Amino acid sequence: MIMPRLYGERIMLREYKKEDLEHMRKWVNDPEVVNNLSDLFLFPHPHRVTESFLDTMLEGNAEVKGFVIADKETEAYIGQIDLIKTDWKNRVGTLGIVIGAKENRGKGIGEEAIRLLQDFAFNRLNLNKLELTLRDYNVQGYKCYQKCGFVEEGRIMQNFYVDGIYTDTIHMGVLKSEYEKSK
Ligand SMILES: CC(C)(COP(=O)(O)OP(=O)(O)OC[C@H]1O[C@@H](n2cnc3c(N)ncnc32)[C@H](O)[C@@H]1OP(=O)(O)O)[C@@H](O)C(=O)NCCC(=O)NCCS
């Protein structure tokens, strides 16, 4: 049966809630997290900016189509997984994911969340491809995406400056046909 929330073994992908704000605030200014993201996070994020993002998600009509990664039993916030852009004509979705607390990273939650989103994107939204970009030093992310069938499609050389060095941006993608094989 098709359910609006998506359930994995340990987690669910659920709708955003007002109470998620305090949990989002914990990572939006954490360099360990935001150094892996875009320059949208270059300056400290004021409370209002996080609140405003959450408001658009609560309205439900934002361009970003997103889920909160939550504990399956308690619904407690763990992180976010979003289709930050969807190209409906070419059937390509761009993925963004964050697991807020360090103690929840590296335990397979990212993989579980991505697999749920892949099933949703390919089999319910009828997308043909998911893609994402990551910083070349994000080994944890790279390994996680590889486990989920993403392959490296290319690198943009030295287009991201952080902590005194220029770093590459890696483009990864997975096709629906390849995802079916990797299940
Ligand atoms: C990227 C992210 C979503 C991945 O989720 P996750 O739950 O940590 O990923 P998983 O546990 O499923 O997989 C991570 C893999 O990297 C491995 N790993 C963890 N730390 C590592 C390190 N320092 N070096 C190499 N491998 C590492 C893990 O062992 C695991 O592989 P395994 O299952 O073969 O053991 C999460 O780490 C995160 O939110 N990071 C901070 C924000 C971020 O980088 N967002 C993505 C931007 S593109």
Give the overall form: globular
Assign the CATH architecture.
3-Layer(aba) Sandwich
- What do we call the CATH topology? Aminopeptidase
Give the fraction of residues assigned to helices.
25-40%
CATH class: Alpha Beta
- Rounded to an integer in angstroms, the radius of gyration calculated over CA atoms is 16 Å
Distance between the termini: 20 Å
CATH superfamily: Gcn5-related N-acetyltransferase (GNAT)
**Hetero compounds:** coenzyme A
Q: Average the pLDDT over all residues and give the rounded result.
A: 95
Strand order of the largest sheet: 1-2-3-4-5-6-8-7
- Uncertain regions spanning at least 5 consecutive residues: none
Tell me the number of helical segments per DSSP (H or I, 4 or more residues long): 6
| Strand percentage | 25-35%
Helix and strand composition category: alpha+beta
Count of the domains: 1
Question: Could you state the order of secondary-structure elements as H and E?
Answer: EEHHHEEEHEHEEH
Major sheet: 8 strands, mixed
Total beta strands:
8
Please, could you describe this protein's structure?
- The chain has 6 helices and 8 strands; from the N terminus they run ββαααβββαβαββα.
- Helix 1 (21-28) packs across helix 3 (47-59).
- Strand 5 (92-99), helix 4 (109-123) and strand 6 (129-135) form a beta-alpha-beta unit.
- The longest helix has 15 residues, at 109-123.
- 31% of the residues lie in helices and 34% in strands.
- It has helices spanning 21-28, 31-34, 47-59, 109-123, 139-147, 176-182; strands spanning 6-7, 11-14, 65-71, 77-87, 92-99, 129-135, 151-162, 165-175.
- The mean pLDDT is 95.
- It has one domain: Aminopeptidase.
- An 8-stranded mixed sheet has the order 1-2-3-4-5-6-8-7.
- The protein is α+β, with helices and mostly antiparallel strands and 183 residues long.
- Coenzyme A binds next to strand 5, helix 4, strand 6 and helix 5.
